[in-house]
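Usage

Read records sequentially. Each one opens with the input sequence:
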Amino acid sequence: VIKAFAYGADCVMVLTCHHDSCKSFDGSMECEQKVKALQEMLKEMGIDEARLVFGTLAPGSAMEFAQLINDVAKRFMKQDPRVNLAV
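and closes with the structure output:
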């Protein structure tokens, strides 16, 4: 994640399965906690923590994935149309 920002990404999305359908039981929740910790680190580094986005998806939910990507892209493109997204 940090490398993505170092290489110029304006936004990074971390996507996992829904909490109640994760095959590793608590893997999705652990990932969310790590993302929150990374957001705090970014904040301390002077980087807007909102640039790191966490989301969950169900298997085979292409439409949900597309909607999530579009929502995040629209939000960041309002701020700067030259936004560079990394997923």
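Summary fields computed downstream for this record:
- Helices lie at 2-6, 27-44, 62-79.
- Residues 27-44 form the longest helix (18 residues).
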